[in-house]
UniProtKB/TrEMBL annotation:
<dbReference type="InterPro" id="IPR036400">
    <property type="entry name" value="Cyt_B5-like_heme/steroid_sf"/>
</dbReference>
<protein>
    <recommendedName>
        <fullName>Cytochrome b5 heme-binding domain-containing protein</fullName>
    </recommendedName>
</protein>
<feature type="domain" description="Cytochrome b5 heme-binding">
    <location>
        <begin position="5"/>
        <end position="77"/>
    </location>
</feature>
<dbReference type="InterPro" id="IPR001199">
    <property type="entry name" value="Cyt_B5-like_heme/steroid-bd"/>
</dbReference>
<dbReference type="Pfam" id="PF00173">
    <property type="entry name" value="Cyt-b5"/>
</dbReference>
Length: 79
């Protein structure tokens, strides 16, 4: 069964202090822990543990295509 994350829960997965690094895009939570570009939970000024739909749609050079390579770990539901 898929885990559901709200903003508070997702924020715990920031890639810091040994935590996994998760990001949410369009209601889906992805694991970016093993992605070199997300080392330390940071990627081009963006932080893991956040909802990044607007960022990936408006600022990301690769767009949503890169998401296909990631593991889905749950659903994101806004508070």
């Amino acid at each position: 069964m898929s885990k559901t994350f709200n903003q508070t829960e997702l924020a715990k997965y920031d890639g810091q202090a040994g935590q996994p690094a998760y990001v949410a895009v369009d209601g889906v939570v992805y694991d970016v822990t093993g992605v070199a570009a997300w080392a330390g939970g940071k990627h081009h000024g963006n932080l893991a543990g956040q909802e990044l739909t607007d960022i990936i749609d408006t600022k990301s050079p690769h767009g949503r295509g890169v998401l296909k390579k990631l593991t889905v770990v749950g659903q994101y539901v806004a508070d």
